[in-house]
Design a protein that fits this description.
alpha+beta, globular, about 200 residues
């Protein structure tokens, strides 16, 4: 009797551990499902193995990008924000702006224009990467959003014009029309707001 119970308990523990492991495994690339949701994306064009892309557990734009950021007065901001609060600071053509990580952690992408240049400010909370890009590819200005997918635990963005997918960490187009293209990185810093 006790031997049977031990085997049963062991089997239960092994099956439970296996089920738990499966629940934490990323979903495998489901290109057929993607094609239903991403009608403009050309999945025949990709610069990475599609099996490297997995669902982050949410759908497109569930984490909404900011398209018209509210730019406040610096002195008023000092009253609201702690001097130690981290911000992404970027300067373009002599114009400087700071984007609080407390906002970007909920939105991940801000489409903006600074110093006459269209930029996208990105932050991936999973890998703690804050990167700013020029939104232009050739003569086209792109607007970015979140796919809800990840590649190597990093945010996969998309542009709304062609629904091409982009790796946030590198700015490389990885799926679709702009596969193989690269966004230009604009120097930025993560620093305390009070600096």
């Amino acid at each position: 009797g006790s031997e049977f119970m031990s085997c049963s308990k062991l089997r239960f523990l092994v099956l439970g551990a296996f089920a738990l492991t499966l629940s934490f495994m990323p979903a495998i690339a489901d290109v057929d499902a993607w094609k239903k949701d991403w009608l403009q994306t050309d999945f025949s064009r990709h610069s990475v193995d599609l099996t490297e892309i997995s669902s982050g557990g949410i759908a497109r734009d569930v984490i909404p990008a900011i398209d018209t950021p509210t730019i406040g007065d610096l002195e008023k901001a000092r009253l609201v924000h702690d001097a130690r609060e981290p911000v992404i600071t970027v300067t373009v053509n002599g114009a400087t702006r700071a984007y609080p990580l407390t906002v970007l952690i909920w939105h991940e992408i801000v489409n903006d224009t600074l110093g006459g240049v269209p930029i996208t400010v990105t932050f991936c909370p999973l890998c703690n990467t804050a990167i700013v890009f020029d939104r232009r590819v050739g003569d086209q200005v792109l607007d970015f959003g979140t796919t809800g997918n990840l590649r190597f635990s990093d945010l996969v963005m998309y542009d709304r014009q062609t629904e091409s997918w982009w790796q946030q960490f590198t700015g490389e187009g990885i799926v679709g029309k702009f596969s193989g293209e690269s966004l230009t990185i604009i120097p930025s810093r993560v620093e305390p707001f009070g600096v």
